[in-house]
Amino acid sequence: MLREEAVQPIEQPQLEIVDLQETPTADKKMVTLTGTLRNRGTGTTKTLRVRVDAYNQDDAVVLSAEATPTTEIVPPGATVTFTLTMENRRDVAQYHVETLAR
Predict the structure, then answer these.
(1) SS3 31
(2) How far apart are CA 52 and CA 95, in angstroms?
(3) 8 Å CB contact between 48 and 78
(4) Would you tell me how many other CB atoms lie within 10 Å of the CB of residue 38?
(5) Angstrom distance (rounded) from CA 98 to CA 68
(6) Measured torsion, CA atoms of residues 60, 63, 68, 73, in degrees rounded to the nearest 10
(7) Which residue among 7, 34, 43, 79 has its CA within the 20 to 30 Å range from the CA of 20?
(8) pTM of the prediction?
(9) DSSP secondary-structure letter at 72?
(10) pLDDT reported for residue 33
């Protein structure tokens, strides 16, 4: 006997970067990056990793580190912030933020 069952859609988080600020320390040797992520998906994150790569003008990675989010659990529509302090290098032209959420 066959019967029909409703298939529930898969709920998945989808994070986007909505803000990224760069603040050098007083001695200019380090820089603190503070960012905000918003979950525009339909699922809550259970784990969250944030990686920041610093690129030079030739698009080569010159620094890379993991940032610390304020929480790993981000429901749909909610935001989370992250911070990271790294060396303040003159050759850094831009930052790339990548998230891995499950």
Answers:
(1) strand
(2) 7
(3) no
(4) 17
(5) 13
(6) 20
(7) 43
(8) 0.85
(9) S
(10) 97
Angstrom CA distances, 67 to 6, 56, 57, 62, 64, stand at: 40, 19, 23, 16, 10
Structure tokens at 80: 């989370």
- The pLDDT assigned to 18 comes to 95
Low-confidence ranges of the chain (pLDDT < 70): none
Q: How far apart are CA 68 and CA 65, in angstroms?
A: 10
Contact by Cβ (8 Å): 68, 26? no
In the chain the first and final C-alpha atoms are separated, in Å, by: 37
Beta bridge partners of 37: 17, 80
Q: Is 7 helix (H, G, I), strand (E, B) or coil?
A: coil
| Side chain identity at residue 34, one-letter code | T
Please list the residues that pair with 22 across neighbouring strands: 33
